[in-house]
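Chapter review: from sequence to fold.
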Amino acid sequence: MRIERRYTKAGQSAYEGIAFRQSTSEIRNPDGSVVFRLEDIAVPAAWSQVATDVLAQKYFRKAGVPTALKRVEEETVPSWLWRSTADTEALADLPKEKRAGPEMDARQVFDRLAGTWTYWGWKGGYFDGEEDARAFFDELAYMLCTQKVAPNSPQWFNTGLHWAYGIDGPSQGHFYVDHVTGKLTRSKTAYEHPQPHACFIQSVTDDLVNDSGIMDLWVREARLFKYGSGTGSNFSMLRGEGEPLSGGGRSSGLMSFLRIGDRAAGAIKSGGTTRRAAKMVVVDVDHPDIEAYVDWKVREEQKVAALVTGSKTVKKHLAAIMKACVNCEGTGDDCFLPEKNPALKREIRAAKKAMVPDNYIQRVMQFARQGYSEIEFPIFDTDWDSEAYLTVSGQNSNNSVRVTDAFLNAVEAGGDWNLMRRTDGKLAKTIKADELWEKIGHAAWASADPGIQFHTTINDWHTCPAGGDIRASNPCSEYMFLDDTACNLASANLLQFRAEDGVFDVEAFEHAVRLWTLVLEISVMMAQFPSPQIAKLSYDYRTLGLGYANIGGLLMTSGIPYDSDEGRAICGAITAVMTGVSYATSAEIARDLGPFPEYANNRDSMLRVIRNHRRAAHGETSGYEALSTNPVPLDHASCPDKTLVAHARAAWDRALELGEVHGYRNAQSTVIAPTGTIGLVMDCDTTGIEPDFALVKFKKLAGGGYFKIINQAVPQALRGLGYTEAEITDVITYAVGNGTLAGSNALSHAALIEKGFTDEKIAAIEAGLKAAFDIRFAFTKWSLGEAFLTETLGIAADKLDDPSFDVLAELGFSKAEIEAANIYVCGAMTVEGAPHIKDEHLPVFDCANPCGRIGKRYLSVASHIHMMAAAQPFISGAISKTINMPNDATVDDCKQAYMTSWRLALKANALYRDGSKLSQPLNSQLLSDDEDEAEEQAEAMAATQPAQARAAVAAERIVERIVERAVRDRDPMPNRRKGYTQKAIVGGHKVYLRTGEYDDGRIGEIFIDMHKEGAAFRAMMNNFAIAISLGLQYGVPLEEYVDAFTFTRFEPAGMVQGNEAIKNATSILDYVFRELAVSYLDRHDLAHVQPEDMGSTTIGRGVEGDKPNNIAPVSHGLVRGQTQRFQVVKGEPRGSAGSGATAHVAATVTAIRTDVQTAFHREIDVEVQDEEEVRQDVHGLHDGDPATKDKNARKQKASKVALARLQGYEGEACGECGNFTMVRNGTCLKCDTCGSTSGCS
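The token string follows.
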């Protein structure tokens, strides 16, 4: 082939004119420990720190790169393409430690990739001449360096290690087809033939132990999982439960083997850094076991819920029984006889009502009789890595159901559906189609699985039906082809092809598509594969996976809404150009080297598919050949770029014309992959076909930390929409804030001077505003001084001690003025409400989620599906994308989303409803605003408790309603008080916590100076502090508040700066009471730092266990009335609790506590105790015990999961760097910290 130069010049370096910089890459765990650090690396100057970190941490070869190299001569290869190997003579003169090391320059990586592709391309005869090979090398190196295109991760890992450095090793059991002889060959070395493929589909037959059978599949999967690739299989050949076996007896069915495979996958992946969700399980809708399969994950989630709830309930009652036995002053065995120990009798009855097994009740009493003072019973939790999830199955794969048009038509008609036996094809069972569809919808709603693959549509677009049906996909669902084939991927960064004038440079894009189609084709030729079947079929069909990323960023930058006819038309046109040019390039290669070996058997079918693609590109609505569902054609009229439409039509005209003459080198050429890690290395704002997710982003700094910047698509979009630079500046400052009061209207410097502020005080305020998230934070007695406030401004001194006191309101500024100034200074993180923005332009800036604190707009479920439908007619494979749904979505919404996808001719779809996984807490949990319902719950709880507890319930309700009623005499605070002020930043928001102490050191009051958008939040926090202070002065133990408010969650939340003991918090309340617990109660279990790491503080486990069934309804800080901003985790604190009832006291038997577990002190004698109280009052294991340490570490991890969800992440830890910064990326997850993905690309 002829290769033209577009970016480079002959005789010049590919990097001519590109600036490089020296950088340091460092990735840290949340606890501050260094995961990876590499200093003095050379990277392109334009690359962000995140892209630099991904390249250095994941794609640089870490060791074994020889310091001195020499060329290995090959007669048939030009000398500049000769491969290199270690120069042993030169290395012998160097110290041993300097003979080899890591890659240190990005150009090393770019050169080894481009060089290897060019080397194998030359050997395969892909170039017309040496100049074409040189141009190919230079253009690829330039595109990699400028982030225009990137291949999938296995290419970065494996390609070029042998060619560039002579790195090699023993064979890993791989195979390849020799490109000269066409013979299947076992690899002799590990890297001479690289393994560049990310996506695999493997077959499995109804055979137990032979090749291609069930047990053989686990081995084949293991080989892929070990090296980070993903695989999918259709298990529908396996016979159903109860079908006969050849040797007699009945089969245990499909599900028994799926559970084995799930266990195997989980075990393999848990041993290394290979990621989750790298496996796809597909089952046909007519399989006899389809109902059990659909409900599989639903039932497993229910098992987890039962394990978690049951373990906590049993632990609580057993601990209470143990306490009733040991905290008894009876003689002989009286303490262990229910008829003589009323407390024990009461606890036994309570345990039986809670369905605790009699055997365990008796066992605890026997332990107590033998002198034990503790009972160890494990508490399970909903953390992904906990014993609860490890106990159940179905957690290591994405599940999909293959549905046919016949089934969906039966659903619509309310007809019957037959389930067929696998052994003889006879009828196994007849069910109602709509009932099975309801099960599928409910399962997707309840557990986010199964997804749907539309079998009829997939095979209507199948280019090679002579090879059999397409029956499965890779884990992310974008690669769909025959079993035992593989696909290597590459994606173009669409924003890199937007010219300075805002026009999409379609010719440059076509140039990139042409070259990278050739790259992927060469990769098939040079590759080795994990099994002989995959090597043979991949050679015979040569499927490719070229795609793109950043369509969301391109559309926003261009000022076009994602959810618009124009946006969908542009997406469709770009996709049509990509696949049309790719197939035309494939035909050119076929002209020179011949079509793929199986083309002759599939010529008519493939040309039919190409003609259907062409019809869609020409915008035709009819005339499609052998399609059950017509696609959504390219919308020529809505596309604002007519040049793009013209190129789309021309590309498919040429693809068909060349294909009819020469055939095609590749059976498939394009997919749209998640582009997780490679999206980060290309600095893409959006991945795959996804929209943007935020308008204000946090840019990572080289030295650590982040700073707030506007999404760079916003100013460019505003320019394209006709806004002036001054107006754009106003919008940006509205979103990110000015960081100063200079220029503010009502709350200006002049207004402050009029109120009596001096220049010195204004300067002090300005210094505090630069990092503030609420301006009122800068107007406090600590920042301005009490003397200035009382003497100069004339504010009464007693008001300054009121936590709810607002200086700005006292000075006469209205609520509206303060809120307006707050947005002016600190930013709204959205463009909703921004000056100059016209309502008709707001859709341009719609993201996948609401933006900022006041944003309400976000993209609908339908908008995602229709965007996929615009691109699907021009994709050889499919599209990897998960449709995120809000928590209040219904089962019918899920079914409708799947039906819409079918009618729009999508090939697959998967849904994720917020809250459908126990291991992922809800993004938002609103407190009940129904007072009657709360009272009913209180009465129901009290009805099961002893008389003393019921009295406590009544007292609690009275005190809640009449706060003036004194429960006991108030202990007044001294006029001059001791205490301390602790400054911290929680999730980027500054918080001042001030305590007031009695003369004996007891805490008697707190002040919380926390500022957030809106006066309501500040007033609520101030009044909350007053309520706590009053409770403390009336005798409420601080322990009760700590137990009640730790692990509550609402924004702001996040990492904590400025506190040496506490490093993250799920809310301001969580932070405040952790700090108070550490300072006044020595509750170092609520801190996050080990003593050896930070002096006097210790790592903590938080609250030891949950208290879902308190003996009396108590106020745990829940605000009565409606609030949209508070979020509280009502379920268990995540993580395992202590191993048994423990106490840090010396006595074997201690007295029973007399206070009820409520939010205020009561003089009521109640013997029923919460397991947490038992933990404090009975001997047990200390944190030094290894088992307890392990459980505490998992509890701390669970808190981080909940915190991550509050910050917008998925709540799962990255398998490589440990940070909880995983975000949804197609059907997979990616880490925003280190770039790892949970998928296969």
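Two observations follow directly from the output. The first strand starts at residue 20 and ends at 28. The chain is about 40% helix and 10% strand.
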